[in-house]
Design goal:
Largest sheet: none
Shape: globular
Helix content: over 70%
Radius of gyration: 25 Å
Number of helices: 15
Distance between the termini: 44 Å
Structural class: mainly alpha
Length: about 350
Amino acid sequence: MDFSSRNFTNTILLIFVVVLALYILKVLSFIFLPLTFACVFSVIFMPFMRWANKRHLPKYISLILAMVTIALLLGCGVILVSLTGQEFLTGRAELYEKLDNRLGQVIEPYVDMLDIDVQKDDGFIKGLLHNSTMSKSIMGLVGGSLVQIKNFSTSVLITLFLLILILAGSVNFKLIMQETLFRTPKQVVIVFNKITFGISRFVIVKIFTSLMTGVVVGLLCLAFGISFPLLWGILTFLLNFIQMIGSIVVTIGVCAMAIIDITHPGALTAAIALFIGVQILIGSVLEPILLGDACDINTVTVLIMLLFWGFLWGIAGMMLAVPMAVLTKIICEQFEQTKGLARIMSSSKVSEK
């Protein structure tokens, strides 16, 4: 066998291995997805674990402190969910009345055009729900949502379990990297520190920009008298973790609520303009600047990774797109054959240097 045919065979084998690996990641997503999230979250606690190790604190004490922190964060999340639930229950009657009037004005012509039988004696929404076709569609949607909630709860529990194992030192990532990718312990330490530093900076920037956007959107809802300002603020904070897509979804939602609540055309126009402007200013100007300095990843790379990991793991994959891009870029920088790819993934400002 000559050299060219051997290269061709190696290329075919490499393509086969890559396709097989992607298939395994897709099929076993219920394992790899929580593991990836646990690895990303563990980066947040690594500075504390290093500090505890330097102070010669017993491993179990530092682990207990980390678990207490996680429990407090989860407790805060439960409290916020409870508050938003109370807010929704308090204003649901008023919201129903406004929604019924607006739906009657906007959707009724289309319902008539599609010849959907709606009894409007008790209101447009109740009449629409009494329609057999609509009832089946809504029940199917509710059933699917319950399944998604169950899967999400299971994934959260698995992620927490794996996070505790990682923080306890049960998984030695440095040893795995040394046995699979790099030969010298010094190179492993350098690359590992780069990865943890890059991902931790991404997490900090993302939390900061998402929190800022959520607070501003919540305050704008409060100022314009839009229903459930706390709910919209929390939704904005959470959905902004889904790169690009999340901000679009929450902006459409809050603008739709503004259309329901605000009757004055000038105030409605100002509210919609401000909601869109906040997302553009923070999500499209401030965040890319901060992420570019923190992660050195250009927008095209983020978009490609968003599409790839979104196809592979859905919404959760979109949330992991940037950390996976950081990981891929840093590893590509370590090998001569892939340094060009790493330069392509870098932001143009750094590449020009």
